[in-house]
Amino acid sequence: MKPPEKAFSEYLASRNLKMTPQRRLILETFIQADGHLSSEELYTQVKSKDPSVGQATVYRTLKLFADSGIAEAVDFGDGLLRYELRYGQDHHDHLICDECGRNIEIVDPDIERLQEELARRYDFVLRRHKMYLFGLCKECRGKNQ
Ligand SMILES: [Zn+2]
Ligand SMILES: [Zn+2]
């Protein structure tokens, strides 16, 4: 598998765009953060490394990450769009706490297999899926009781 920087450069070239130092920095920062970032959060981290990078540039670059398959938008249901690294990553699903927003990444082989079986039953070929289960984490349940 190509490194993400190469994959992103190729995507940019296909759209007649260039891998600029700013885009490279934004990509590096996004990969290092290794989490679920809103454009605001990514901008804060990028700005701490290079204050000359504007918020609009970070926002547009994040859109390019999503369009190129480098990143994927994840919606935790709190109105804030976050992005996670998708390129070269193992698949995982999410348990999300309604109270504190904690995101627990999970993969269950049985659930994955059931999804494939379900798709087969409906003569459907799965390409991808996202599963978000919402509820209360252990800590937040403790607080409310
Ligand atoms: Zn899954
Ligand atoms: Zn919680």
Task: Briefly characterize the structure.
By secondary structure, the chain is an alpha+beta fold. The protein has two domains: 4-85, Winged helix-like DNA-binding domain superfamily/Winged helix DNA-binding domain (Arc Repressor Mutant, subunit A, Orthogonal Bundle); 93-144, 2-Layer Sandwich (Dna Ligase, domain 1), CATH 3.30.1490.190. It is built from six helices and six strands.
Describe this structure in words.
This protein has 2 domains: about 5-85, Orthogonal Bundle (Arc Repressor Mutant, subunit A); about 95-145, Dna Ligase, domain 1. By secondary structure, the chain is an alpha+beta fold. Helix 2 crosses helix 3 (about 40-50) and helix 2 (about 20-35) packs across helix 4 (about 55-70). It is flat, with a radius of gyration of 18 Å. The strands form 2 sheets. Strands 1-3-2 form a 3-stranded antiparallel sheet. A 3-stranded mixed sheet has the order 5-4-6, with no helix packed on it. The mean pLDDT is about 90. The chain contains 6 helices and 6 strands; from the N terminus they run H-H-E-H-H-E-E-E-E-H-E-H. The chain has helices at about 5-15, 20-35, 40-50, 55-70, 110-120, 140-145, and strands at about 35-40, 70-75, 80-85, 95, 105, 130-135. A hairpin with a 5-residue loop joins strand 2 and strand 3. The structure holds zinc ion (2 copies). One zinc ion binds next to helix 6.
